[in-house]
Amino acid sequence: MWPATFARRSPLTTVKAFVLVNIELGKERIVLDMLKRIPSVRDAYLTYGVYDILVLVEADKMDRIKSAITNEIRALPGIRSTMTMVIVDN
């Protein structure tokens, strides 16, 4: 069962998630620029390591987070894979 604080979320509360993205070699900057144009993307950073880009996504509902990741982020050319981590506490 979800804690009571999740059930009583105010309309002003936002849902946030980090999306870790693997990019095709050589397309990092192009994909980064495209990601920054997506309305629900609050920030995006090039990184070194297992993942190439770290994206912060924010929306008013979890359904909008899911839609942004599935229909906008994953649909970009050059993206090989993603891993999403929903933020549960700020």
What tags apply to this protein structure?
single chain, about 90 residues, alpha+beta, Alpha-Beta Plaits, 3 helices, disordered N terminus
CATH fold label = Alpha-Beta Plaits
- List the total number of helices: 3
Overall geometry comes to globular
Task: Briefly note the structural class of the backbone.
Answer: alpha+beta
Major sheet: 4 strands, antiparallel
| Termini gap | 21 Å
Major sheet: arrangement of strands: 2-3-1-4
CATH architecture: 2-Layer Sandwich
Q: Identify the CATH class.
A: Alpha Beta
Radius of gyration: 14 Å
How would you state the average pLDDT, rounded? 89
Q: Low-confidence stretches at least 5 residues in length (pLDDT < 50)?
A: 1-10
β-strand number: 4
Estimated share of beta-strand residues: 25-35%
CATH superfamily: Lrp/AsnC effector binding domain/regulation of amino acid metabolism (RAM) domain
The number of distinct structural domains comes to 1
Helices and strands, in order, run as HEHEEHE
Helix content: 25-40%
Can I get a quick summary?
The protein is α+β, with helices and mostly antiparallel strands and 90 residues long. The chain has helices spanning 4-7, 28-35, 62-73; strands at residues 15-23, 41-46, 53-59, 79-86.
Question: What is the element layout, followed by pairings?
Answer:
Elements: H1 4-7, E1 15-23, H2 28-35, E2 41-46, E3 53-59, H3 62-73, E4 79-86
Antiparallel strand pairs: 1-3, 1-4, 2-3
Your description of this structure?
With 90 residues, the chain is α+β, with helices and mostly antiparallel strands. It has a single domain (12-86), classed as Lrp/AsnC effector binding domain/regulation of amino acid metabolism (RAM) domain (Alpha-Beta Plaits). It is built from three helices and four strands. It has helices at residues 4-7, 28-35, 62-73; strands at 15-23, 41-46, 53-59, 79-86. The chain has a four-stranded antiparallel β-sheet with strand order 2-3-1-4, covered by helices on one side. Strand 2 (41-46) and strand 3 form a beta hairpin. It is globular. It starts with a helix and ends with a strand. 19% of the residues are buried. The model is unreliable at 1-10 (pLDDT under 50).
